Recover the amino acids of this structure.
C-alpha cells in the first residue's frame, strides 16, 4: 500500500531514499518478498504519484520484477484524503486472484517476516487469515511515544486488536503502553496481513456498510484492522498469528529518515 499522503513527513515518503544505492523501503520489501517465494508485486498508488513511483522502480529494479500498478483513487468516490487501508485493498481486487499478503510501503519488516508470511499463506482459506506480528519492544523508538495496535493472542490465534497510545521506552528500560508496564514481547500488528482472495467479498460488504454510514465524513477512513476485528467478532474470520523476531522500522516524521538510513546501511 503506497497511496498515503505523507502529511507528517512532508512529501512522498514511499520514495524516500534510505539505502546506500538509493533504495526506498519498498525496494527492500519487494526483494525480500521475492526471496521468500512471492510472485507478482501489486503497488497501490495515487494517480498523482504513479509516474514518480514507476520511474523509481525502473531505476532500482529494471525489468526483472513483475510489478502491477493500481490507483486507489480510481475506485472512488473522489476526495482529497484516501479512504483508508481496507479501501486500498479493494482497489486492487481486480488483480488479486490468489492468496496475497498486505504491507505498508513505508515500513521495513525484514527478510524473515516475509518467510513467515509465505508459510502463513499456505494455511489461509476463505474464512482464515493470518497476521505476522512484531514484538512491541522492536517497534518503539528510543525516545518518544507512538501508537501501536496491540494484539490479544490465544494459542496462536488473534482474539483482539486494540489501538493503544503512549507506547514508549522509559528511562529504566521498561516498556509502557496505554499507561501500563508491559513485556517487550507484547505482540503488535504492523499491517503485515495474509489473506485468501475470497475474503474480498466480506471486505466489500464492510466497505459498503462503512460508506453508507460515514461516507459524508471528509476524514473518515475504513481501516483494515477494524474490518478484520468486525469479521472476527461475527465469526466469519479466524486470524492465525506468527511472531516475527525482526526489528521493525518505518517512516512517519522527517526525523525518522536518518534512523532508517542508519539501520539499512548494511543491506
Amino acid at each position: 500500500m503506497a497511496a498515503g499522503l505523507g502529511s507528517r513527513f512532508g512529501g512522498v515518503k514511499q520514495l524516500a531514499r534510505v539505502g546506500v544505492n538509493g533504495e526506498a523501503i519498498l525496494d527492500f520489501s519487494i526483494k525480500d518478498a521475492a526471496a521468500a517465494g512471492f510472485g507478482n508485486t501489486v503497488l497501490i498508488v495515487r494517480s498523482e504519484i504513479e509516474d514518480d513511483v514507476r520511474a523509481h522502480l525502473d531505476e532500482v529494479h529494471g525489468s526483472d520484477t513483475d510489478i502491477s500498478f493500481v490507483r486507489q483513487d480510481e475506485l472512488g468516490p473522489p476526495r482529497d484524503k484516501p479512504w483508508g487501508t481496507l479501501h486500498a485493498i479493494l482497489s486492487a481486487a481486480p488483480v488479486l486472484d490468489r492468496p496475497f499478503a498486505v504491507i505498508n510501503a513505508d515500513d521495513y519488516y525484514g527478510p524473515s517476516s516475509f518467510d513467515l508470511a509465505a508459510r502463513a499463506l499456505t494455511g489461509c482459506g476463505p474464512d482464515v487469515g493470518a497476521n505476522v506480528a512484531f514484538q512491541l519492544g522492536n517497534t518503539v523508538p528510543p525516545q518518544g511515544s507512538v501508537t501501536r495496535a496491540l494484539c490479544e493472542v490465544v494459542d496462536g490465534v488473534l482474539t483482539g486488536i486494540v489501538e493503544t497510545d503512549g507506547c514508549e521506552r522509559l528511562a529504566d528500560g521498561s516498556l509502557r503502553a496505554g499507561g501500563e508496564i508491559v513485556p517487550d514481547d507484547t505482540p503488535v500488528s504492523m499491517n503485515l496481513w495474509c489473506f485468501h482472495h475470497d475474503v474480498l467479498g466480506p471486505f466489500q460488504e464492510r466497505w459498503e456498510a462503512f460508506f453508507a454510514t460515514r461516507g459524508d465524513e471528509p476524514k473518515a477512513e475504513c481501516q483494515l484492522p477494524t474490518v478484520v476485528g468486525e469479521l472476527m467478532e461475527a465469526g466469519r474470520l479466524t486470524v492465525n498469528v506468527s511472531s516475527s523476531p525482526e526489528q521493525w522500522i518505518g517512516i512517519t516524521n522527517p526525523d525518522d529518515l536518518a534512523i532508517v538510513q542508519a539501520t539499512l546501511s548494511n543491506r
